[in-house]
Amino acid sequence: MVTIVSPLIIRTTIDSIIGSEPIGSNFLERLIQYIGGRAYLRKNLWIIGVLLVFIAVLRGILLYFRNTLASKTAENTAKNIRDSLYDQIQRLPYEYHVKAETGDLIQRCTSDVNTIKRFLSIQLVEVAGSLFMLGFVSYTMFKLNVKMTLVSMATMPIIFIFAFIFFSKVKKAFEASDEAEAELTTVLQENLTGVRVVKACANQKYEIEKFDEKNKDYRDKTYKLIQDLALYWGASDFICFIQIGLTIVFGSIWAVAGEISLGTVMAFSTYVNMLLWPIRQMGRTLTDMGKAIVSIGRIEEIFNENIEILNGNNEKPEIKGNIEFENVYFEYEKNTPVIDNISFSVKAGSTVAIIGPTGSGKSSLVYLLARLYDYNRGSILIDGKELKDIDKAWVRKNIGIVLQEPFLYAKTIRDNIKLANPNIQDKKVYESAKIASIHQDIKSFDKGYDTYVGERGVSLSGGQKQRVAIARTIINDCPIVVFDDSLSAVDTETDISIRKALNNRKNKSTTIIISHRISTVSEADEIIVLDNGRIIQRGNHEKLINEKGLYQRLYEIQNSMKDLEEDIKLHA
Ligand SMILES: Nc1ncnc2c1ncn2[C@@H]1O[C@H](COP(=O)(O)OP(=O)(O)OP(=O)(O)O)[C@@H](O)[C@H]1O
Asked: How many domains does the chain have?
């Protein structure tokens, strides 16, 4: 609105203050009289200059507030979307996370949200502003002179259609460039996270070539995009300048013929600019809006996923640690049993070990126990209560699981051990670390328990990480603890000392040990040998080493390996 006033002031100044045309508006007539009359203003043209500067400043201030408000709204909306998205992702079931690609999820939380933010803060305001401007400017132009308005708008439909068609086509180039960038980022991310593998396999040359190839691809696709855009901006600039030329030429011809005033020509030459550039921009804006709609769809997909109900109407019984599997059957995919009719029981406080070849279903048993998946048939009872009837969050609070590849946060070792309960006393942290045989290692670090893990500090060995994870789990005094191959990276002596310390605890938990190592499972009260989702042998170590079968074979192989290792040590 403020922008539209300036050309009108210039027109009135040229035609009615410098020239002698009638002013044609009662309001302006009165305003000019109030300031001092036409003759006074003609002698003091600086007043008009000051007025124009004032309008420009006012426009700047209004623009500032408009943009600040739009950005604030967009930033707040983006923050709210990110918060809700993160919340939703946290609530999605384990099954979803197993299948989802982390990179894709991250992209949805960052760049898709940013696309929506840009749409809200720039494009939406731009389109609304442009439409408003088009309405007002066209109305003012038609009121000033219909013939001149039609000439000034002659090429506008062409510019709009050209812009729209071009940007619909160039959308593919935009997408290609985006995808090439995503591929480049993936290569970079994989290389940095897998740097150990790269170095160990002396794969640097291959990695450099792969990066170079993706980098070139990204450059070429972006270059093509820039070329297309340059072509568009050049061609549309050409049409725009032709339109401005048409307005000035026709305006001048009609002014010379006395059909319109010079001030009107001046006003039209400004108005035509106000119409042309937003229309030229509109095609681009509409394409970007298409991108925002795609992003909204991608985010919506996450919100449409069913979340995991952690706190249903299920019960929260006191858990002592008696476990009973009765004919449990489970499959991830239809008709492919992973756990096939398994039955066994563990008394509270005792230890059961599960051993078996890879893919035999050991970890799946643990997932069922933690209710990360629900079994298809059969029954799992905890202290006589059906597991499916117990609150999921309650189950996970009471069953501590140590995974084979534990994830440690970029925090201090102390904070990592206290993860589930930050208020726990340091005395308890040290006790748990001693049981997990990691206390001495931690003490040997310069900053002890305050040593940062990972990127900001010491990089722990695989075995040290496993032991920190063991301390983190046992500190919670869960009635049931599961070690899912989580002693694999510690040496046999440390393994023995951890198991001894666990056995000597006051409140002994029910313990399930999953391992490939005979020495780790040998002291368990019962050992279950799993193959292809079925129990093929069970009993204690003594019984199993004297029974023909997988356990005996594993025992013999691992024993001969041990002898060989001792031989090597002796001769070294
Ligand atoms: N999310 C999943 N979707 C489909 N199949 C799966 C899934 N997770 C595991 N499986 C399959 O289920 C079978 C049992 O896997 P599981 O991880 O329980 O075996 P495991 O005995 O723990 O193996 P490992 O000793 O190698 O850890 C395997 O054939 C595996 O491919």
From this structure: 2
